[in-house]
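User: Some background: our group keeps a shared notebook of sequences we're curious about, and every so often someone picks one and asks for a predicted structure to add to the entry. Today it's my turn. The entry only has the sequence so far, pasted here. Could you supply the structure so I can complete it?
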Amino acid sequence: MISGHGDARRTLIVVFLRGAADGLALVPPVADDHYYRARPRLGIDAKDAIKLDDRFGLHPKLRPLESAWKEGDLAIVHACGTEDQTRSHFEAQDLMEHGGVVAGGWLGRFLSTRPIESRGALTCVAVGKALPECLLGAPSVTVMESLEEFAIAGRTPRFGTQLERLYAMQRGQLGAAARDTFAALLRIEAMRTTRYHPDNGATYGRDDFSNGLSQLARLIKAEVGLEAASIDLAGWDSHFGQQGQVEGLAAKLAAGLGAFRQDLGPRMATTTVVVMTEFGRTVEENSAFGTDHGRGSALWVLGGGVQGGRVLGVWHGLNPDVLEKRGLLEGYGDLPVWNNYRNVLAPVLTQHGAAAGIGGLGTVFPDYELEPFSLFG
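Assistant: Of course. Here's the predicted structure to add to the notebook entry:
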């Protein structure tokens, strides 16, 4: 093991659906007549939806996740989001990823509370081209689109050997970090030279999202000590022609997560996937066969001992009387945020080792009085 106990760790994967995913399309309230009155053209037909309970269904393109729901490994919190009222992608993402009006990102602060001895070169990975805001302040993050990028680029093997010898003379935290990094390079090099075969008959798609999840599955199974990772699926800003746009993205989301869960098999018991978005869409469809920026959406928690098969949280329906009005505009209004996202993340982080109070959840979400959901047994 790179860190000495990589096989004992839990891994948290954060999937961010950038662009404001429509929770009312992904998890439609099929028993609510107001849903179909507000969306006569875009409403997901109850007979096509995957039944979750007496109120909600899943978008038909999310069928690869049906088994996770039936087996109790998937929980959903509807009408979830932040207190941000701007309906601005930038501001809402900023608030959500920072965990409030505070320096650093919520996931970065969580990782900074972890024991020093558990920190390694591959403790945290961001799949993509840039460091996401949620990981600002993390003690160590590797940003990469693929395992091929984790190397001493443009240098000969001799250079790497000389560099390793140089750092071998270092003592303390610098020396330990260097040794861990070189050990990680050796492990990744071995992975690069071996063709990856997913387990349990899992088949990943060829899109970037599925490819990123397959890279994370490899790292988890290689026991390199991965504690947290982030990956995005962008493109959810569905002002125009929403039906085809959401169908394509929902298919990618479900296929990727379904393959990841199947590939990991028993390792999903120590892996948690959180799927979140900055805000939802308007309850009422617009004249361009789309929806505009709204408020509440749906947040999902998959795996990791989740007591799933449940849609959790406050839900008052879509009667216009309970919706959030937008100034003097007539119509249905927006789905309110009845459930704050921090109260969903809090039990997830507790499951991954965060303690209560300062130095734990109080550090991750300062200046916010948590009321954590009951997500785990």
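Suggested note for the entry: Residues 242-264 form the longest helix (23 residues). The CA atoms of residues 281 and 294 lie 4 Å apart.
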